[in-house]
Amino acid sequence: MSTFLQYVLSGLSIGAIYSLVALGFYIMWSACRSVNFAHGDVMMVGAVLAVVSNDFGLSPYIGIPLSIVACVLYGVLVERFAVRPYTKEANAIGWMLTTIAIGIMVESFVTIKFGSFARALPSPGVDKPITIFGAGIYLQEMLIPLFVILFMIGLEVFYRRTMLGRAMRAVAFNRIAAGMMGINVGMVTSFSFALAAGLGGIAGILIGPIIQVSSTMGVLIGLKGFAVAIMASITSARGVVITGLLYGVLEKFVEGYISSAAREVVGFSIMILVLLMFPQGLFGRKELTKV
């Protein structure tokens, strides 16, 4: 029983990180039908900057907010110079290549400056594990699923109850019509990338003390976050969170009962099967367009 619970608790923790990354993809897609394909590297940047700020002796109350702000600015710059020039036409996909290229450059730069080895991000949440019915888990791991659920609820309220949230949905539906109605399309798009990047930075800071921080930590997590977003349907925040949590639990059971080497094989095989059976995603609906 304790082993089963251990896998569930650990899976919910890592699954919540996948959900946070996937929510970033959801935010960007929901606003402008484009994403930063190197979004996982934003998570890495947030964690690395938090470690560097700690090395310089900054208080976590100063260093962590500064790291998140830096991620937000990074998201704004990516949208302005790597995405916006390629979204003027509906079918343009140049942003795919440019965002991937920027991610590779950022990762290389961090490797040069930060090093290729992993570093620990200090946190009081990993000082002592908590025992629950024989299963051990750190407080840090317990806080991540709680944070992702609260953020999802806040995001849905934001989209439904605020003018900016409604403007983001309008821009996603039809950029030209939204602009004609007086919505600043450029500002809305920039805000969505900034919000997603800030969330990515927070994800990196939350997971950093658990898996340690390195220049390559965001590659696989970013890919899995994107896979979660696609499996769930990138248009459903609730679906993204639920799918991410389930995917994390599945990984832990595969690790425990088969092997860690089989984790990616099983995980991505299930992703392929899900998309074959549900082309719109598990929580997706067919979009109808009136002509």
From TrEMBL:
Keywords: Amino-acid transport, Cell membrane, Membrane, Transmembrane, Transmembrane helix, Transport
Organism: Herminiimonas arsenicoxydans
Gene Ontology cellular component annotations, sorted alphabetically: plasma membrane
Pfam families assigned: BPD_transp_2 (PF02653)
GO molecular function: transmembrane transporter activity
Transmembrane segments: 6-28, 58-78, 90-112, 132-155, 176-196, 202-221, 228-250, 265-283
Domain of life: Bacteria
Name this polypeptide is given: High-affinity branched-chain amino acid transport system permease protein LivH/BraD
Family, similarity comment: Belongs to the binding-protein-dependent transport system permease family. LivHM subfamily.
Biological processes per GO annotation: amino acid transport
Places the protein is found: Cell membrane
Chief location bin: membrane
Keyword Cell membrane: yes
Membrane-related topology note: Multi-pass membrane protein
